[in-house]
Structures are given as structure tokens and as C-alpha cells.
């Protein structure tokens, strides 16, 4: 929504910025906030008033937080591909509707380019 509000001259640039912003927001939400909230910083000089349940990276940490991080990495790996396929499918659908579901690729309802 923010990317659409900014407005970019080309669809490729908009898609690139959407992918970058999605990655940054997910990185902040999972890699930074999730680690900070779950961390037990009671033995550190700066505690930020946080006393989470994990004082180290152990098997319990990987069971609760590791799965979320892996899911985010999978999403970040596949989202650009899925988004490109979705945009291609939407453009193809509009072309088919413009042709009136005809197989003739030169038939169109548009009067100009």
C-alpha cells in the first residue's frame, strides 16, 4: 500500500521496491523483535528490562523461534517468484477479457496503444 502511494514510473521498479520493503519489514519483525523479546538479558550490562525465557541458543530456542525464522526465510525466497507469476496471470486475464475470450491475438476492444 505504501509502495503504491509513493508511485513509481515503471512496474518493474514498483515490484522491486515491494519485494525490498517486504523483506525489510519481515526481517525486522522476525529476526530482530522475535530475538529481542525471547532473549533473557538479565546477565548483560544493558537489559532493556527484558527477561525472556531463552538465555542461549539451545534446542528449546530452535523449537519455538527457529521455526518462525525458517518460515520467514522460505517466504522471502518464494514471494518474488509468486508475485511475478500473479502479476503475469492478472495481465493475461485482462488481455483475454479484452479479446472477448477469442483466440485471435490481434482482436482487441482498445482503440489506441
What percentage of the residues does DSSP assign to strands (E)? under 5%
Q: Count every beta strand, where a strand is a DSSP E run of 2 or more residues.
A: 0
Shape: elongated
The oligomeric status of these chains comes to: single chain
State the helical fraction.
55-70%
Summed over residues and divided by their number, the pLDDT gives a mean of 80
**Helix/strand order:** HHH
Biggest beta-sheet profile = none
Q: Uncertain spans, ≥5 residues at pLDDT below 50?
A: none
Whole-number tally of structural domains: 1
Q: Please compute the radius of gyration using only Cα atoms.
A: 23 Å
Total helical elements: 3
Q: State the end-to-end CA separation.
A: 28 Å
Structural classification? mainly alpha
Could you please describe the fold and organization of this structure?
It is built from three helices and no strands. It has one domain (2-98). Helices cover 65% and strands 0% of the residues. It is an all-alpha fold and 113 residues long. Helix 2 (11-38) packs antiparallel against helix 3.
